[in-house]
Structures are given as structure tokens and as C-alpha cells.
Design a protein that fits this description.
The chain has about 450 residues and is an alpha/beta fold. β8 and β9 form a beta hairpin. The radius of gyration is 24 Å and the shape is globular.
């Protein structure tokens, strides 16, 4: 049997078949975002199955992030299904347009890899990595553990993953089950906002300011049943927020009231910021601190180190062994060499990004435009209308990231990445943004 919804036919006899049919329609675009699915009993009658079968199918679709239940409005296709990455939001930058939307580090601030790769290759030639060896290289693990200890992170085992998002996914999967809720920063990292529903988990937003997540918002989210909290320690994407000592103390107090929370701290800013880390780890039984090499050493290294409590790390590594097994020791040895040789001067990199952020922030402030960018490489600018702002800036020769990539419930904004921009370009960007937000005002140059 089948049910015709618009031009699309939902078919199947089992829950998995019905869910697959709906998901296929969404993937093909035949079931548009926001489209209402039939009521349970109506679809069950048309397909000749029990209503519980359709309920199970809808539950599978919710867990996969394909549909959402909207109270009296029934079950609808999500406005942006989990299979559609947030990076697809916005307009591609045409030739000749300056792209400040991608969030990449400045290649000029990344260290050369030639010597480190040569050392890793020589080590491999003398001692090839074979099956049965340790997943985490000895030198990298020691360097990571020493760096964590120097920043006050509690003692714990160290694992190596294929980037920060890989680590976060494995920690969430180690403790949570489909249907559980994760408290995430809003605005926050778009990839994480995609990952959570893709794992069958629910997102609950926690508002942030320049000091990171608001404690009262985090407390409300945990009181309402969120089982995990993800916090960006420094260089928060997209706002540049950084958790200071006072905010860290307030968040630790919130977590102390909810010790069963799975706490994940993303310190991807390690190596590019000069603000101290104020770790939250140690309050909750299950926790993890993740440090990626992407921003300081290069995105293509695809490596992050993670520490945490013994149970979390044991589950993470156990599941990793059943999948990729380990992160290439050639890559691990390359990063270890870069760390050992201090190939990156965090203070110098922080100054370079800081000077660019401050130039842009000052240029916007002089024009009466409020913006945020305490650390890292991004500036977050609230706007009245995202679509209009993105379009106007594109006409001015600038491609910026729409805030929709990063928002759940916060107001519209755009994200600007200052990597690689020269002082004259930063001044031109400030003027262009002012022109985009106040199109009726006369343009001024110089």
C-alpha cells in the first residue's frame, strides 16, 4: 500500500520501510522543509498497518533529525533536515568577491610542515606502525598530557581523534541515546548543531555573551533534562567568546548541581589565543576536554587530542578500535614534532588575529555598529535582516556567513572571518557593512 502526499508516495509495511520512504522523499526534495506528514492513524489506515508501526517510523525519523513534532501542527519535515549541512546556507561567492565566510585560519600564520613530515617519515621507516600497536603515539600523548596539566585540566588518559567534531561525536555516543537532549551554545558551531540531530539527539540552546554560556541559561537547560553540555573554552565560533575566571566559577556551580551531566569542553582555540584556560572539568563524573590542531597547525592534519574521565575515554577508544582503529601515526608524529619544536608561537598568532579583530571592531564602532569578537578569528555582527545584509554585502564585493548557520533561537547576525585581511581591507569591510545596514546614508571613503 502507499499514501500520496502531494506528488510523493509514502510506502512501506514496516516502520523502517516507512521511515526510509519518507527520508527518500526528503532527500529528493519531493517532501519540502516544513511539509506536514499525515496523522498517524490516517497514514496507518492508508498503508494497512497498525498505528504503532507508523508511530515507530515517525520516531525513527525524529531520531535521525529528518522530522520534528510541532504540537498541534503535527509532524513536519524539519526546516533544515539533518542531512543538509549548515554550510549550504548562504550564496556561493562569485569570482572577484572577497570571501570572509569560510572560517579558515590565515595560511601565513600556519607553520611549514616539511621538516615535521620528514621526521615522521623517518620515524616510520625505522619503526613502521602495524596492527596491534597503541592508538595514541607516546610522544604526542605525553606532550598533550603535559599541556593539559599546565592549564589545570584534571589528570586523565589521552586519546587521539580525527578532529574536534570526531571527538565530540564519540563522547556523546559513549553516554547518550537517541532522544536525549544536548545543551549547546546559541549561537554556536554550525557543525555541532548539525551533528546533534544527526545522532538522533535533541538540541536545547544556551545563550552566550562575550564570556561564554550564560550560567542561568545552562542551569535551566540542565534542569529541564539536558544530559550533556558542550562549552567552547576560547575563540568561540562564531562570536569569539572566551570563558573567564568568574564565568567558569559560575558554570562550575551550575554543574555541581547537576553532576550527572556529560561535560564536553572544546578548546579549539589552543595555540591561537593568549587568554588563559579556565577549565570546568572535574565537577561532573563524565567529562572530556578536546583540543584540535586545525586552527593553529592546519585543518588538513585532521587531528585532535582529548582527555577525560577513565570511563569516557575507555568507551571512546573502544568504539574507535571497531571503526578506524587509530589516527595515522604519521600525522600524530608530525603534530608531536610541531609541538615539541614550538613551531607556533600562540602569543604572536593571537596578536595577529587580535589586531585584525580590533581594527574591524573599531571601524564598526565608529559607525555605530555593535559587534562581538573577544578572541579568535571571527567577528559576529547582529543585523536586522540576514538575507538583506548578506545580499547587500555581496553587491559590495564581500561574501559573509549568514548567522543562520550558527543560530537556534538567537536574533539574526552575520559572521566575518578576519583571517588574511589587511588593514585597508578591514577598513573597507567596515564601510561596506555600514553601507549594507544603512543603505540610505551617504557613503564615505578614506
Amino acid at each position: 500500500m502507499e499514501f500520496v502526499l502531494g506528488e510523493y508516495r509514502i510506502a512501506g509495511r514496516r516502520a523502517a520501510e516507512i521511515a526510509a520512504s519518507v527520508e527518500e522523499g526528503v532527500g529528493r526534495g519531493a517532501l519540502a522543509p516544513g511539509a506536514a506528514l499525515p496523522p498517524l492513524r490516517e497514514l496507518a489506515a492508508r498503508l494497512g498497518v497498525n498505528a504503532n508501526t507508523v508511530a515507530a517510523a515517525y520516531r525513527l525519523l525524529r531520531e535521525r533529525g529528518v522530522v520534528e513534532t510541532a504540537g498541534r501542527r503535527g509532524t513536519r519535515v524539519r526546516g533544515r533536515p539533518a542531512s543538509t549541512p549548515r554550510e549550504s546556507a548562504g550564496t556561493p561567492a562569485p569570482p572577484g568577491v572577497r570571501n570572509v565566510a569560510e572560517g579558515n585560519p590565515d595560511p601565513a600564520l600556519l607553520p611549514p610542515l616539511t621538516d615535521a613530515l620528514a621526521e615522521a617519515a623517518a620515524r616510520y621507516a625505522a619503526r613502521p606502525t602495524l596492527y596491534g600497536g597503541p592508538a595514541a603515539g607516546g610522544e604526542l600523548a605525553r606532550l598533550a598530557r603535559d599541556a593539559f596539566a599546565a592549564d589545570g585540566v584534571p589528570d586523565g588518559p589521552v586519546a587521539v581523534t580525527s578532529g574536534a567534531l570526531d571527538a565530540i561525536e564519540r563522547v556523546l555516543a559513549a553516554h547518550l541515546r537517541p532522544g536525549d537532549t544536548v545543551a549547546v551554545e546559541d549561537p554556536g558551531w554550525g557543525a555541532l548543531l548539525d551533528l546533534v540531530p544527526a545522532l538522533g539527539l535533541r538540541v536545547t540552546p544556551v545563550a552566550v555573551d562575550d564570556d561564554g554560556p550564560l550560567p542561568e541559561e545552562a542551569g535551566r537547560a540542565l534542569a529541564r533534562g539536558a544530559r550533556a553540555l558542550v562549552v567552547t573554552a576560547r575563540a568561540q565560533n562564531p562570536t569569539g567568546a572566551a570563558v573567564g575566571a568568574e564565568r567558569a566559577a559560575a558554570l562550575r556551580a551550575v554543574l555541581a548541581a547537576h553532576p550527572a551531566t556529560v561535560l564536553i569542553e572544546d578548546d579549539h582555540g589552543h595555540g591561537i589565543v593568549d587568554l588563559p584556560l579556565h577549565p570546568l572539568a572535574g565537577v561532573c563524573a563524565h567529562w572530556a576536554v578536546v583540543r584540535s590542531a586545525a586552527k593553529a597547525y592546519g585543518p588538513d592534519l585532521r587531528l585532535a587530542v582529548v582527555t577525560g574521565d577513565a570511563v569516557t575515554l575507555d568507551r571512546l577508544q573502544g568504539r574507535q578500535r571497531l571503526g578506524p582503529g587509530w589516527v595515522s601515526h604519521l600525522v600524530q608524529d608530525t603534530v608531536a614534532c610541531l609541538w615539541r619544536e614550538r613551531a607556533v608561537d600562540p602569543a604572536a598568532v593571537a596578536r595577529a588575529y587580535g589586531a585584525r579583530r580590533e581594527r574591524l571592531l573599531d571601524g564598526l564602532a565608529r559607525r555605530g555598529i555593535t559587534a562581538h569578537g573577544r578572541s579568535g578569528m571571527n567577528v559576529w555582527v547582529p543585523v536586522p535582516d540576514e538575507t538583506a545584509a548578506v545580499g547587500a554585502l555581496l553587491r559590495e564585493g564581500w561574501a559573509v556567513a549568514p548567522g543562520a548557520r550558527f543560530r537556534v533561537a538567537t536574533p539574526p547576525a552575520v559572521r566575518l572571518t578576519v583571517s588574511g585581511l589587511t588593514p585597508p581591507e578591514l577598513d573597507a569591510l567596515a564601510r561596506a557593512l555600514a553601507s549594507a545596514l544603512r543603505p540610505g546614508e551617504p557613503r564615505r571613503y578614506g
